[in-house]
């Protein structure tokens, strides 16, 4: 049934979800990858059922009416998965958490800015969230109060256009664009000076939207505004802004959110299997997903049979963990809505670091609000089991260098790359090389990837292949039915080199795939 | 209107982009409540209900104002909505021109008489293209009417609105939005390939005429609708060229088709047969009723602001524009003098050029359909060349490639615009066409290769080869094309490849 | 008015003691020497050559009246005729006995009409019965007969330049027999008859030697016959008939010069112009046989210009003896005492002057309105250059209406001549390179006459000044420059860079940069490094110039280094590197230069890229990424390390 749920929720899943038998995949694996690599045979392709409801690209985020679908899904399966976030505060973050949140980030946001100053205008990307009443809900820079009039204008524009039975999409000027996203009862506006496309920005606004949903559920959000048209949502979201702030940072830096994929901690498959199986062993009745993270890298993920986790929901979880140090102090217990799974209901996540001072963080997601102690117990079972195995040392080792250098590939002109296996929804990418150490440089190169991504995935004029020689990099992007590949070369690299680099790189990834990818995900 | 091209399925209807509104306003006029209508200087279609006009203008003001909060110096240029796109342009301080273009759409009929569902294709319109079209509208207006400000000085709002009505009423009908593409962005000038000697002959022709008819201030010389010499400054020539090639020449093309030995009355000046005739002004000198009124144009509007008579005189395929200060009275006498002087010389020159041209053509050999098509544009001299467009006039742009490919060219161009550094972009479309875009030292080159299963290197080699061969062909050819193709090579081999 | 006189007497005449009872004066056309023989030589002989310096004075015994006296070439031997039968000789060569010796003419009872030297030791006696050609043997003090020919002779005319002697024969004397002498040989040329005007009573000599002159015009030998109008004749005036005398073949009538008047005439040839002096009117006509009168295809010529008198001339009152204290007095022109010699000599024996006649070109300019005629005329003159140039600048200074076509014609005429010279030069140099072509005559270098007006002449004397003029519209200036360039191109003469510079300078001055751009676009100004550099310098005023100049350098394909320099100076380090790689030069460029440039940009990323590139080059070329000391990149290596850290270097891989 749950399968139906997600099938309904994400109908395109059938397109790539129809899994070929493992054997066929095995024999299909060829060492020299051919351009036409079919999905499921590309390097990093999962050899078993997938971990995620994974997105081919961000279309699923921006495709209209997906939340209606989600809602439909929600209404249908709240009984089973995720409790209904019907009336009242029960769904809201519990007091102590809010307190804790507040303490954990005392004024972590230097928001007091003069919103008429050049400095404020110079920010590369503004994001505003407001209610349909034009009430400010969030602003990335500058206080909502200071911006309330601006947001008022935004709302005015939106509704003015709507009055003509039309929808406002974006405003374009030299050097920046303003993108509007209408997600009743919210309106999100992005103002960016980046090279990103309108749709790319809209994708990011969706993330912000779902981030908010993940705290409240859509049902509750609607409920609130039905009752009080000009309710000040900030009262409810107080203390959670840093989540959005952090998410925006991730959007600027983390290729995973761009590729709709997750990257794994490089680990020999044997070790990973041991970890997975011990995680698998530590199950509980209402446990749906167990996820082991190392920083932003996924170590492993075990899920209930037939339950799929959308990469976006996973990213939201990552964001939750990443943005608050609170979980280091002890086991956290928080309700969370996984909007891609069900915008109507809450799950409850047990979040804790395996040991103090380690990056290994375990997330156990349950459907039961009262499940804290069971899950706490699961964690300990898992930990004991794991401690007994040598794999644990191996894991500790691996933690020392969670990423790898591009030089391992052995192509001097190659500076960086992103490789995404479509079928597994996993990607791999080396650490940023020397000249890209600064944040600006990293965001710049991400921007270039975003540019390639939006060009190659253009809604009406998609491309198979892009090569562009610029002043600071040569870039290459190539999408087949099996994988997406983005390469960044020295601007003095030649085309011939680029072509040979592709093959060399694919060979290398094939060689390394069992370290870089999770080839055999586990289920309970 | 329905374009047959896209009419897929049985009843599905494809609508191409079309002009919804076109209006000009100045927010400083009618600042007070209730006076909003005063802001509107021109509105198309005129039959729109007053309040709607005011509302639409209001929205534009709001958008512009809103964007100033993020960058006071760079306000909005376009607004994207589901159904249409609006383009804003402020050619003169506080004067705003707004063009609203409806997105192309597909009408899918529904069963049992339900209203058909309409799908808007929001990604089909390219801002760069239509933004350029809008600016062109203004340039064209300015060419024939001068600036808004001058009109205001001369006769206040009344005069301005009159001028606007008079001009745009006709002009907007000639806008063919469905056939706009990259070439509109460049608004380039196609130069006629010519050998040095013939070019020098033309030079001395122009000089002699200007010497003996000292009224003439500027001269421009064209052959086969391509420019050879311009005495005007680049920007003025650019728009004048646009007018000549897309409006004036097409209107007079018919007799030309008849060619030299047509029954057309050859003028007899002195004892020399010639084929000169006026394209502007008197259609026939012999006619006692003949009118000697010439269109007026405005050039150098930023500094000297000159108003000129535009005399266009043509013999066979050679056309010359003589520009004379509007303060001069031009009558029959002058026209006859000009006709007598220019007619014979121009006729000879025209046949010289024609001869040269044919020689070159023979050298370059028979032009067969090549494996590639290209568009070339040089920002420095506005030189433009396209093997994609068979014919480009205001009304029709016959391109030999699929519109989606043209749009991809547009996308690549947009990328070039964003960064002012040199760049090269090579893409492979889903249709497996390769598209190469190269921007180097103020030049842009776009090549479309029809080599489905070539790889990057092969494509690159192909483009190199293409340039090489083209160049060998054109080596014997005249200076200009040589520079052109050399430019191609240079720009393509700029980054050393292997 | 004075600039009306287009003829003048040279201002440094040869002066000699004027003829008198005691002083006989002789003129030798061959050596252009004037002999003043006082009392038969006893009291001295003074010989004045064309230039006053080498005047020779000597004495000789008075052995009777001297009829004729001439030096052989280089004044080696003096020949004196005193008797009708014989000629006496005196050695003037050092270390040879100075004593006279004599030679009688061979033919019995013939009288010697005169003699002519044809070389330093060969002499021709002309007697009434023929010619005798001798070689003088000064050491033997005797003569040796080389050749002789007997024929009845009325009179003779000698043309020293060609050593051709014309003998007048037959009763009427109008059949002329030319002989040509050349180192010891005497060749008889085909005789010809001068058409006389209809005569009334024949059987007496009608053709007088005064009416015949021989001269070379435009390198051809002509016999000029001054044909007086016949009393009965229907033709109004006298005319000069030119007979073209060729070494082989018959001599034919080739030109007729119309004088349209009658009277006493004398002929000169100056600078290939036939000058006819008319005594009664005291004016001279000037004819140019190369000037075609459009209508007549048979070569009948009218005077080039209206007849004018020779420019007035002043002389010191009492000849040479006087110390020039007295105020000079005007000298009588066209005086009856004048004797005129070919080609251009006028002698006034009574006053003791020898003048060369000269043509003044300046007056011609004002007298000859038709510019194209004028140019043709001037281009054929000897000292024409400055005049032509002044004509050009003057023609331009009056930028009057419709002058452009004229300017064009003039330029074309100049370049026509210019081109012919260049071609001659070229074929000469080619011939020289190919070496002596199968023993044929050694190649002669073409002489560069003043008529060859090249680009630098035009530039320095006309155009550069012209473009400075403020009173002429820049439109006209540019038009003229383009006209000149057009003309040069038409004659396929490579245009010199400084002309382009002039065009560009003018265009820039008047801020007509778009015009300039178009010219370059059509390669009117052809490519060259200097031009490219000039364009570069314009970039600040006109940005497109940068592109133009880069393209030019690329087309030149020999300027890769310059291109790199330009790009580097524009901080386009990457572009420079990509370019040099595209032409395959990236293995020989200096890493230092590029790293310096990269550093200057302050662009870390760029520096990294460039540094990496060279590391890899080192790797490829030397198997190690490290720089050699010779490359002087230490500071950059240090900087790279400090900026990106040790680990950023490429690890040396040892294979």
UniProtKB/TrEMBL annotation, chain A:
Any Pfam family the entry gives: Fuz_longin_2
Top-level taxonomic group: Eukaryota
InterPro entries given in the database record: FUZ/MON1/HPS1_longin_1, FUZ/MON1/HPS1_longin_2, FUZ/MON1/HPS1_longin_3, Mon1
Basic and acidic residues bias locations: 101-114
Domain annotation FUZ/MON1/HPS1 third Longin: ranges: 413-513
Gene Ontology cellular component annotations, sorted alphabetically: Mon1-Ccz1 complex
Domain named FUZ/MON1/HPS1 first Longin: residues: 125-247
Disordered as annotated region, ranges: 1-117
UniProt-listed GO biological process terms: protein targeting to vacuole; vesicle-mediated transport
PANTHER family per UniProt: SAND PROTEIN-RELATED, VACUOLAR FUSION PROTEIN MON1 HOMOLOG A
Task performed by this protein: Plays an important role in membrane trafficking through the secretory apparatus.
Entry similarity comment: Belongs to the MON1/SAND family.
Protein name in UniProt: Vacuolar fusion protein MON1 homolog
Phylogenetic placement of the source organism: Eukaryota, Metazoa, Chordata, Craniata, Vertebrata
From TrEMBL, chain B:
Domain CCZ1/INTU/HPS4 third Longin: 368-466
Gene Ontology cellular component annotations, sorted alphabetically: Mon1-Ccz1 complex
Start and end residues of each CCZ1/INTU second Longin domain: 216-340
Pfam families listed in its UniProt record: Intu_longin_1, Intu_longin_2, Intu_longin_3
Lineage: superkingdom: Eukaryota
Domain CCZ1/INTU/HSP4 first Longin: start-end pairs: 20-146
GO biological process terms, semicolon-separated: vesicle-mediated transport
Family classification: Belongs to the CCZ1 family.
Protein name, entry field: CCZ1 homolog, vacuolar protein trafficking and biogenesis associated
Species whose genome carries this gene: Scleropages formosus (Asian bonytongue)
From TrEMBL, chain C:
GO annotation terms (biological process): regulation of autophagy
Entry's Gene Ontology cellular component terms: late endosome membrane; lysosomal membrane; Mon1-Ccz1 complex
Residue intervals of the Regulator of MON1-CCZ1 complex N-terminal domain: 25-143
Span of domain Mic1: 381-629
InterPro entries membership: RMC1, RMC1_C, RMC1_N
PANTHER family assigned to the protein according to its UniProt record, in alphabetical order: COLON CANCER-ASSOCIATED PROTEIN MIC1, REGULATOR OF MON1-CCZ1 COMPLEX
Listed name of the protein: Regulator of MON1-CCZ1
Organism: Scleropages formosus (Asian bonytongue)
Gene this chain is encoded by: RMC1
């Amino acid at each position: 049934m749950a399968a139906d749920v997600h099938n309904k929720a994400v109908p395109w899943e059938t397109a790539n979800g129809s899994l070929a038998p493992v054997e066929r995949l095995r024999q299909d694996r060829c060492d020299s990858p051919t351009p036409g690599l079919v999905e499921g045979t590309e390097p990093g392709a999962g050899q078993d059922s997938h971990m995620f409801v994974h997105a081919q690209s961000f279309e699923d985020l921006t495709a209209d009416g997906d939340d209606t679908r989600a809602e439909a899904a929600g209404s249908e399966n709240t009984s089973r998965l995720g409790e209904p976030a019907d009336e009242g505060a029960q769904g809201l973050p519990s007091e102590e958490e809010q307190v804790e949140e507040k303490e954990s980030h005392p004024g972590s946001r230097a928001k007091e800015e003069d919103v008429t100053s050049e400095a404020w205008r110079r920010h590369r990307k503004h994001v505003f969230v407001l209610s349909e009443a034009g009430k400010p809900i969030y602003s990335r820079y500058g206080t909502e109060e200071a911006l309330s009039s601006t947001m008022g204008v935004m709302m005015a524009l939106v509704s003015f256009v709507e009055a003509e039975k039309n929808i406002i999409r974006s405003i374009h000027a030299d050097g920046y664009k303003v993108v509007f996203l209408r997600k009743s009862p919210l309106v999100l506006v992005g103002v960016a000076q980046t090279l990103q496309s309108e749709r790319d920005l809209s994708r990011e606004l969706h993330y912000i939207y779902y981030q908010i949903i993940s705290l409240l559920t859509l049902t509750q959000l609607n409920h609130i505004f039905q009752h009080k048209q000009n309710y000040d949502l900030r009262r409810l979201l107080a203390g959670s802004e840093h989540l959005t702030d952090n998410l925006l940072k991730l959007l600027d830096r983390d290729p995973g959110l761009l590729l709709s994929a997750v990257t794994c901690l490089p680990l020999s498959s044997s070790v990973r299997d041991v970890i997975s199986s011990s995680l698998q062993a530590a199950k509980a009745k209402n446990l749906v997903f167990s996820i082991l993270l190392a920083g932003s890298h996924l170590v492993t993920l075990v899920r209930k049979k037939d339950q799929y986790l959308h990469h976006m929901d996973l990213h939201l979880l990552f964001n939750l963990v990443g943005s608050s140090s609170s979980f280091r102090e002890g086991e956290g217990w928080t309700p969370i809505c996984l909007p891609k799974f069900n915008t109507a209901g809450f799950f409850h996540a047990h979040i804790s670091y395996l040991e103090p001072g380690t990056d290994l963080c375990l997330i156990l997601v349950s459907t039961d609000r009262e499940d804290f102690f069971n899950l706490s117990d699961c964690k300990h079972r898992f930990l004991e089991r794991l401690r007994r195995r040598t794999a644990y040392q191996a894991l500790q080792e691996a933690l020392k260098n969670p990423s790898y250098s591009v030089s391992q590939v052995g192509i001097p002109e190659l500076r960086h790359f992103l490789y995404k296996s479509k079928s597994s929804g996993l990607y791999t990418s080396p650490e940023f090389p020397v000249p890209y150490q600064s944040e600006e440089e990293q965001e710049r190169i991400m921007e270039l990837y975003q540019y390639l991504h939006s060009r190659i995935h253009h809604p009406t004029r998609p491309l198979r292949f892009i090569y562009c020689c610029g002043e600071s990099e040569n870039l290459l992007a190539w999408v087949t039915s099996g994988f997406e590949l983005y390469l960044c070369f020295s601007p003095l690299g030649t085309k011939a080199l680029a072509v040979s680099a592709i093959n060399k790189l694919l060979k290398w990834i094939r060689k390394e795939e069992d370290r870089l990818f999770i080839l055999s995900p586990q289920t309970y | 209107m329905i374009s047959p091209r896209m009419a897929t399925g049985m009843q599905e209807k494809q609508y191409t982009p079309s002009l919804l509104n076109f209006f000009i306003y100045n927010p400083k006029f009618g600042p007070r409540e209730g006076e909003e209508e005063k802001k509107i200087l021109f509105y198309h279609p005129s039959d729109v209900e007053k309040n709607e006009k005011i509302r639409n203008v209001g929205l534009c003001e709001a958008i512009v104002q809103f964007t100033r909060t993020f960058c006071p110096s760079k306000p909005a240029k376009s607004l994207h909505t589901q159904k249409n796109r609006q383009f804003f342009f402020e050619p003169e301080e506080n004067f705003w021109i707004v063009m609203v273009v409806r997105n192309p759409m597909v009408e899918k009929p529904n069963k049992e008489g339900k209203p058909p569902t309409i799908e808007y294709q929001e990604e089909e319109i390219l801002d760069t293209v239509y933004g350029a079209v809008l600016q062109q509208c203004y340039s064209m207006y300015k060419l024939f009417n001068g600036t808004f400000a001058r009109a205001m000085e001369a006769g206040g709002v009344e005069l301005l609105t009159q001028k606007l009505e008079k001009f745009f009423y006709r002009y907007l009908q000639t806008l063919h939005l469905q056939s706009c593409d990259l070439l509109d962005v460049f608004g380039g000038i196609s130069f006629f390939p010519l050998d040095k000697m013939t070019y020098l002959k033309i030079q001395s022709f122009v000089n002699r005429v200007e010497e003996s008819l000292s009224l003439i201030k500027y001269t421009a010389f064209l052959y086969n609708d391509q420019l050879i010499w311009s005495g005007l400054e680049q920007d003025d020539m650019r728009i004048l060229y646009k007018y000549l090639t897309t409006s004036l020449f097409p209107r007079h093309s018919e007799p030309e088709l008849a060619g030299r030995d047509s029954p057309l009355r050859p003028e007899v000046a002195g004892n020399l047969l010639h084929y000169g005739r006026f394209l502007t002004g008197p259609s026939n000198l012999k006619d006692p009723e003949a009118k000697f009124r010439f269109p007026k144009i405005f050039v150098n509007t930023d500094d000297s602001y000159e108003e000129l008579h535009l005399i266009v005189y043509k013999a066979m395929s050679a056309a010359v524009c003589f520009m004379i200060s509007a303060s001069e009275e031009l009558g029959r006498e002058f026209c006859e003098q000009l006709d007598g002087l220019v007619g014979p010389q121009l006729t000879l020159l025209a046949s010289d050029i024609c001869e040269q041209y044919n020689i070159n053509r023979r050298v370059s050999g028979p032009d067969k359909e090549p494996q590639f098509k290209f568009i070339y544009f040089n920002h420095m001299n506005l030189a433009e060349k396209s093997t994609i467009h068979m014919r480009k006039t205001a009304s029709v742009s016959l391109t030999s490639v699929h519109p989606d490919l043209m749009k991809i060219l547009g996308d690549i161009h947009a990328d070039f615009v964003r960064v002012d550094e040199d760049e090269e972009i090579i893409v492979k479309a889903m249709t497996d066409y390769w598209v190469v875009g190269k921007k180097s030292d103020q030049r842009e080159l776009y090549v479309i290769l029809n080599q489905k299963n070539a790889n990057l290197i092969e494509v690159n080699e192909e483009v190199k080869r293409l340039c090489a061969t083209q160049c060998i062909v054109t080596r014997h050819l005249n200076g200009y094309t040589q520079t052109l193709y050399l430019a191609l090579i240079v720009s393509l081999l700029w980054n050393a490849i292997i | 008015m004075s600039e009306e006189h287009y003829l003048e007497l040279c201002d440094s005449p040869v002066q000699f003691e004027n003829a008198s009872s005691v002083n006989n004066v002789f003129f030798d056309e061959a050596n252009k020497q004037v002999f003043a023989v006082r009392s038969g030589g006893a009291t001295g002989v003074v010989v004045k050559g064309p230039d006053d310096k080498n005047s020779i004075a000597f004495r000789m015994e008075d052995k009777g009246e001297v009829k004729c006296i001439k030096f052989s070439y280089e004044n080696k031997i003096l020949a004196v005729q005193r008797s009708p039968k014989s000629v006496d000789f005196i050695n003037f060569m050092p270390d040879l006995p100075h004593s006279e010796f004599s030679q009688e003419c061979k033919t019995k009872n013939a009288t010697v009409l005169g003699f002519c030297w044809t070389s330093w030791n060969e002499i021709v006696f002309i007697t009434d019965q023929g010619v005798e050609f001798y070689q003088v043997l000064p050491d033997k003090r005797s003569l040796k007969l080389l050749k002789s020919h007997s024929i009845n002779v009325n009179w003779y005319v000698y043309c020293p330049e060609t050593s051709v002697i014309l003998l007048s024969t037959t009763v009427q004397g109008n059949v002329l027999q030319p002989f040509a002498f050349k180192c010891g040989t005497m060749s008889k040329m085909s005789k010809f008859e001068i058409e006389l005007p209809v005569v009334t009573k024949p059987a007496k000599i009608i053709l007088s030697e005064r009416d015949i002159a021989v001269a070379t015009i435009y390198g051809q030998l002509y016999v000029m016959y001054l044909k007086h109008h016949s009393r009965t004749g229907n033709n109004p005036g006298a005319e000069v008939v030119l007979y073209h005398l060729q070494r082989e073949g018959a001599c034919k009538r080739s030109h007729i010069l119309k004088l349209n008047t009658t009277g006493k005439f004398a002929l000169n040839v100056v600078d290939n112009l036939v000058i006819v002096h008319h005594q009664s009117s005291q004016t001279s006509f000037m004819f140019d046989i190369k000037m075609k009168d459009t209508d007549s295809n048979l070569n009948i010529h009218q005077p080039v210009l209206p007849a004018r008198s020779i420019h007035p001339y002043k002389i010191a009152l009492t000849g040479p003896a006087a110390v020039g204290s007295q105020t000079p007095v005007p000298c009588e022109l066209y005086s009856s005492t004048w004797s005129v010699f070919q080609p251009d000599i006028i002698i006034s024996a009574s006053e003791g002057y020898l003048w060369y006649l000269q043509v003044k070109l300046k007056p011609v300019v004002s007298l000859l309105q038709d510019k194209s005629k004028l140019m043709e005329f001037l281009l054929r003159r000897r000292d024409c250059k400055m005049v032509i140039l002044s004509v050009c600048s003057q023609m331009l200074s009056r930028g009057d209406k419709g002058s452009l076509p004229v300017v064009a014609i003039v330029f074309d005429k100049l370049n026509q001549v210019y081109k012919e010279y260049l071609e001659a030069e070229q074929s000469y140099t080619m011939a020289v390179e190919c070496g002596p072509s199968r023993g044929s005559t050694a190649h002669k270098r073409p002489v560069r006459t003043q008529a060859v007006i090249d680009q630098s002449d035009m530039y320095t004397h006309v155009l550069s000044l012209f473009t400075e003029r403020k009173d002429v519209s820049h439109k006209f200036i540019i038009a003229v420059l383009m006209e000149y360039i057009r003309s040069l191109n038409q004659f396929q003469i490579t245009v010199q860079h400084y002309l382009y510079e002039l065009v560009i300078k003018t265009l820039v001055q008047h801020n007509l940069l778009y015009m300039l751009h178009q010219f370059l676009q059509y390669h009117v100004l052809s490519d060259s490094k200097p031009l490219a550099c000039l364009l570069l310098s314009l970039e600040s005023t006109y940005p497109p110039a940068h592109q133009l100049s880069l393209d030019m350098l690329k087309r030149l394909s020999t300027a890769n280094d310059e291109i790199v320099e330009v790009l580097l100076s524009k901080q386009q380090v990457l572009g420079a590197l990509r370019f040099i790689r595209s032409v395959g030069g990236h293995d020989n460029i200096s890493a230092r230069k590029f790293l310096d440039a990269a550093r200057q940009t302050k662009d870390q990323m760029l520096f990294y890229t460039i540094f990496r590139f060279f590391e890899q080059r080192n790797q490829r070329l030397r198997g190690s990424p490290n720089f050699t000391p010779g490359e002087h990149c230490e500071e950059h290596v240090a900087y790279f390390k400090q900026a990106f850290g040790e680990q950023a270097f490429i690890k040396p891989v040892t294979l």
